[in-house]
Write a structure and sequence with these properties.
By secondary structure, this protein is mostly beta strands. Helices cover about 10% and strands about 30% of the residues. It has one helix and 14 strands.
Length: about 300
């Protein structure tokens, strides 16, 4: 301490007091700023709430679950991949589960307040994507709850009945008909009429005949449904024809009826092919018979 920094009575001068006091205040302010505004977590650091966390490596949470609760009626979990310019296939939120599990579960609102469990939006890409896994749909194993979705062969399935394996009930939602250009005749029982190379002749009471939907090569044998027209002609007596999947017992149905001889009657149908992509025709014609034709106009994959 120099002489001019000390009063004549030996006490520190006011100049020295203000000098060291200002330094202490600056140090305290710096410590306060550091505590109130922590740096965002990088790789290997702790997750910090309230600031951006810039880690680039995958973070895993094993043996537990992470819950984000928001009491402000706002967004609890928000996944944003808009800034991922280097990856045009960036994903906002990715959920993955095992057999019968749930990849992403969203619960919104209460019994009296409406809300949204899961919401997806995309500026240019796919808002919501369900990837196909190793589990076939409809599933043959695992426990499934009503309201679940799954993808198999590019088709979307919805579970409308809870159960285990084949006991669960599923509906395919993505089925759409594939229209054909014109009518494609897959069968005609009359001799000399196309298509050739198939069983010909009238069909009588109690007889069955298996018809391949792929006879003309325009319809795949694995089509799940076919749409078309069934025609009976040159009838005798009265009767009806039934159509059902090959390989199953006759379900007792009727697809077309006639009530007089020498009649020609047509009716549209939607049918499910059975074994080998075939449809079975069955006649109920007491004392009579008929010729019949099958034309396909569209099919479902």
């Amino acid at each position: 301490m120099t002489d001019h920094e000390q009063e004549s009575d030996g006490q520190p001068s006011r100049r020295r007091f203000f000098k060291y006091g200002a330094a202490a205040a600056a140090a305290t302010a710096a410590a306060t700023v550091s505590t109130a505004l922590p740096a965002g977590a990088a790789n290997g650091g702790n997750l910090v709430i309230g600031v951006a966390n810039n880690g680039t490596l995958t973070t895993s949470l094993a043996g537990s679950q992470l819950r984000v609760l928001n009491g402000n009626n706002n967004v609890s979990v928000y996944g944003d991949s808009v800034g991922s310019a280097v990856n045009t296939a960036a994903v906002g939120v990715l959920g993955r589960s095992g057999t019968g599990g749930t990849g992403v579960y969203g619960e919104g609102g209460t019994s009296t307040v409406s809300g949204i469990g899961v919401r997806a939006v995309s500026e240019r890409g796919t808002p919501l994507k369900i990837d196909e896994g190793s589990v076939p749909f409809p599933p043959t194993s695992g426990t499934w709850s009503a309201g679940s979705f799954g993808v198999e062969g590019g088709h979307l399935f919805y579970c409308y009945g809870s159960g285990t394996g084949t006991g669960s009930k599923w509906a395919r939602l993505s089925a759409a008909p594939v229209p054909l250009t014109g009518n494609f005749r897959v069968y005609d029982s009359r001799a000399g009429k196309a298509p050739l190379g198939v069983t010909k002749g009238r069909i009588g009471n109690g007889q069955t005949r298996n018809i391949s939907i792929a006879t003309n090569g325009n319809i795949p044998t694995n089509a799940s449904l076919v749409m078309g027209n069934l025609t009976v002609t040159e009838t005798s007596g009265t009767g009806y024809l039934s159509m059902y999947p090959t390989g199953v017992a006759w379900p007792g149905n009727s697809n077309i009826n006639w009530t007089s001889a020498n009649a020609t009657v047509a009716n549209s149908f939607v049918a499910k092919p059975g074994t080998g992509g075939q449809i079975t025709m069955r006649a109920a014609t007491p004392g009579g018979s008929c010729h019949f034709l099958l034309d396909i106009v569209a099919y479902f994959t």
